[in-house]
Write a structure and sequence with these properties.
With about 140 residues, this protein is of the alpha/beta class. The protein contains five helices and seven strands. A five-stranded parallel sheet has the order 5-4-2-6-7. Strands 1-3 form a two-stranded parallel ribbon. About 25% of the residues are buried.
Amino acid sequence: MGIAFSFLPFLDACFEQRALLSPVLALGALKIHEPPERIAALAGEHAYAHLARDHSVRALLRDRYEVSAYQDCDVNGLADLHLDLGKPLDETWDGRFGTVLNGGTVEHVFDVRQAMTNIHRLVRPGGTMIHLAPVTW
């Protein structure tokens, strides 16, 4: 699960429309999925040098889109938060995020209807839900 550079023009447009709102919750422990040479080419710009080291979506959103708060969630123990989107979430999660970013997680959840219900509940009113389908194969 992750972000490919081919998604950047779309994310740029979201940013220009003021639709990337903090805090951002990424579904899955997202990484940048690009060959090392492509990351290195972008990393030639000083602000992106760290991307070549850790493939960090957190850093990309912070540096390119001024996202001040970012968390990711997964059930695999690799993310900031442990959330099972296939089960109803406690109401304390309602409206906690300005943007929910699905970079290829929902298709791995058995109960997609419940996952989509949870995503709607996680994002605050007026917030943004972004679904990026991994169609690179």
